[in-house]
């Protein structure tokens, strides 16, 4: 029977694991923040507050369900909230989406290596792929411990870059909206929706498909319901603050960083060239901490952790994801994979609300 107490260490690990999962190549590179928030100007910045409320609600619901129901399979959370048929559809769609998101991470690693280090398109991609395959093979417990410690560190460094970027470019605030409009109309900057409301809806949907299986898995490891809920609430807050600050920094400097595959790297370089070297490593680590649970979610859906089949399929899918990731441009993958899948994820959001009201 689970003890009814709260471990601060566990709360930090849960918060860190959620943050690390959500960081990925999209946030760490700034491409995700650009397309979902910064490109829409001040409305997009307001969208960060809306996103925080929605993320707090949905992540708490998922980890609490994992704690209470102790699902045998992490993807059982879909049938728990959505019923047999729609739940099964979301289950299999989520498997596909998690794998495609893994390829986005690989593409982000490739873009970071090429843009900052001048590597070939395969070098960064191979590095992250191999590292991800190794860690996924170690199992869930090791994944939570590893990425749970890394997540808060990445957020703090990202917030530092964002705050300094805001200070350096706040004088451009008055003209930033017009510049963003010009870049969007010219096709140089992509957006994840026709307006900021549609973008936020899509973004919360994307995050639902990311976090549902993973939070249902780690929820059952908690000592108490209060402990797991605290972890996701703190994680949601930390990630949302980072989004708001980074969105401000990118928006105010959109004329300089808007057309880059890696906007955050240009922000760091403007602060100091040495910082861009450090931040490029942070980006790769952020990509790694998200690639791991994505690949794990796919493999664990069909194979038991620790079995030889689990490890063999991890290697096979890791290699397939590597080839897809280096074949397509990073910003295109972000726009199409996340844009379409986000609206599928929203279906589950309404089912979660219905289930909670019904209870």
> What Rg is obtained from the alpha carbons, in whole angstroms?
19 Å
What share of residues is helical?
over 70%
Main sheet record: none
Give the CA-based shape: globular
What's the number of helices?
Answer: 15
- Provide the β-strand percentage band: under 5%
Q: Which parts are unreliable, with pLDDT below 50 for 5 consecutive residues or more?
A: none
Report the strand count. Answer: 0
Name the average pLDDT: 86
Estimated structural class: mainly alpha
Q: Report how far apart the termini are.
A: 24 Å
Query: What's the SSE pattern?
Result: HHHHHHHHHHHHHHH
Report what the structure shows.
The chain has helices at 8-29, 31-36, 41-69, 76-82, 84-117, 123-138, 140-169, 173-185, 196-219, 225-252, 254-257, 263-271, 273-302, 308-327, 330-358. The protein has 359 residues and is mostly helical. α5 runs antiparallel to α15 (330-358), α6 runs antiparallel to α14 (308-327) and α7 runs antiparallel to α13 (273-302).
Q: How do you describe this structure in short?
A:
The chain has 15 helices and no strands. With 359 residues, it is mainly alpha-helical.
Set out the fold topology.
Elements (H helix, E strand, L loop, with lengths): L7 H22 L1 H6 L4 H29 L6 H7 L1 H34 L5 H16 L1 H30 L3 H13 L10 H24 L5 H28 L1 H4 L5 H9 L1 H30 L5 H20 L2 H29 L1
Spell out the key features of this protein.
359 residues
